[in-house]
Amino acid sequence: ASTLGAAAAQSGRYFGTAIAAGRLGDSAYTTIAGREFNMVTPENEMKIDATEPQQGRFNFSAGDQVYNWAVQHGMRVRGHTLAWYAQQPGWMQSLSGSALRQAMINHINGVMAHYKGKLAYWDVVNEAFADGGSGGRRDSNLQRTGNDWIEVAFRTARAADPDVKLCYNDYNIEDWSAAKTQGVYNMVRDFKSRGVPIDCVGFQSHFNSGDPYKSNFRTTLQSFAALGVDVAITELDVQGASATTYANITNDCLAVSRCVGMTVWGVRDSDSWRSGDTPLLFDGNGNKKAAYNSVLNAL
Ligand code: XIL
Fold first, then answer.
1. Who has the most CB within 10 Å: 46, 105, 180, 241?
2. Would you give the distance in Å from CA 164 to the centre of its chain?
3. Mean pLDDT for the chain overall
4. Is 235 a catalytic residue?
5. Cα distance between residue 237 and residue 278, in whole Å
6. What is the pTM of this model?
7. Which residue from 233, 235, 272, 280 has its CB within 8 A of the most atoms of ligand 1, so it is best to mutate?
8. How many angstroms does the Cα of residue 73 sit away from the middle of ligand 1?
9. Nearest ligand 1 atom, CA 273
10. pLDDT band at 208, cuts 50/70/90?
């Protein structure tokens, strides 16, 4: 195969990218994206501040732009994200307690109704665990509504659209020895044992020199999959874009039958949220980097 998407499809997997609505007018960008990928995650357009800028007033214009572009190019879409401590609109930031809990439920229902039957995956909850050694939850306005907020979000999501796969998504949960990884693992194990609806776990995989890729990522993917969830690499970027690291990560996903696909967090280095790290597979001129070839060869 000569593209990432076609190469991933040889083993029944997808290869995706984050797409930004604001770049869809850039033909160099859309040429690469349209050719290489077969899954799309809207980079910001389905986040809470974008879809419900005023309470109870939903706006799907940017989300639909990305969704429609993906469908026109034969690609599936991962929704991102319904409940998160960040990128909340001002009105939500100022809520707490039962009013915030109800607003979260209303938000999930409102957004999922619009995209019902259209998406492959939803990141229902994003980044709910704390960094560092506690293995516990991140403090946030949502967490302060009660520890059950995550399972309420997943139960609400299942009822809103029974056909989309429901994912928990987080960063720095790739290292099996990390307390944060174990905290998320224990939550997923608990959810599966109690019948809380969860179908998948997304490993963002933002790697950098301070928290580099480690070979036990494969153990992490295998351990979560053994709980009965699909796993995916959802926001991959690697500071410096080492070709070896990209190949290792690709091989880790391929080694786990329930690793359903990989998504890189942008097309060219110049599109990246951390462009200074040149972490992606295409350079700013749209040329394939060494990491591109190493991923394509591994797939
Ligand atoms: C980032 C986007 O790439 C930026 O454009 C935006 O300014 C901030 O958010 N984890 C996530 C993503 O789940 O939504 C974040 O995306 C990167 C970290």
1. 46
2. 14
3. 98
4. yes
5. 9
6. 0.98
7. 235
8. 24
9. 3
10. very high
- Asked if 200 and 167 count as a contact pair (C-beta separation under 8 A), the reply is yes
For residue 273, the SS3 value is coil
Query: pLDDT tens digits for 243-294?
Result: 999 999 999 999 999 999 999 999 999 999 999 999 999 999 999 999 999 9
- Which of the listed residues 17, 44, 171, 234 should we mutate to test ligand 1's pocket, taking the one with most ligand atoms within 8 A of CB? 44
- The backbone torsions φ and ψ at residue 48, rounded to the nearest 5 degrees and listed phi first, read -65, -40
Angle at Cα 167 formed by Cα 174 and Cα 36, nearest 5°? 75
If you measure from the C-alpha of residue 193 to the centroid of ligand 1, how many angstroms do you get, rounded to a whole number?
A: 31
DSSP state of 269: G
Cα–Cα distance for residue pair 10/293, rounded to 1 Å: 16
Q: How far apart are the first and last CA of the chain?
A: 9
Run of H or E residues at 91 = helix 90-93
| Nearest to 45, CA basis, from 25, 26, 65, 28 | 65
Check residue 297 and report its DSSP letter: H
* DSSP bridge partners of 78: 121
**Closest residue by CA, ligand 1 atom 12:** 43
pLDDT band for 108, please (50, 70, 90 cuts): very high
CA–CA separation, 223 vs 256, rounded Å?
10
